[in-house]
Amino acid sequence: MGYKKATDILPEELLIQIQDYIDGECIYIPRKEENKKTWGELTKSKKETYKRNLDIYNSYIKGTSVKQLSETYYLSPKWIRKIVAAVRKEQQCTLV
């Protein structure tokens, strides 16, 4: 998100109307629904997290303990169990 100077981009009439509501304050204008991006869409974060979760699941299936996975990935045991359950559920859905 970047800041733009209102006097540079808005017509004077619109600027005057906005000043009637909020004079000199900051205002956030959300994106149009069709222009919104999902989390991780602009970076590799989503793909990297998905790959990490698959790695955790596969290690767990091969016998690595929740405690060891927790220490390896710096995640709580509870979070490791949530990841394993989510990937297991996803794997079952793709098999059907």
TrEMBL record:
Organism: Inconstantimicrobium porci
NCBIfam families given in the database record: CD3324_fam (NF040785)
Protein name in the entry: Mor transcription activator domain-containing protein
InterPro entries tied to this protein: c-mor_Regulatory_Protein, Homeodomain-like_sf, Mor_transcription_activator, YraL-like
Every Mor transcription activator domain range: 9-92
PANTHER family for the chain: MU-LIKE PROPHAGE FLUMU PROTEIN C (PTHR37812)
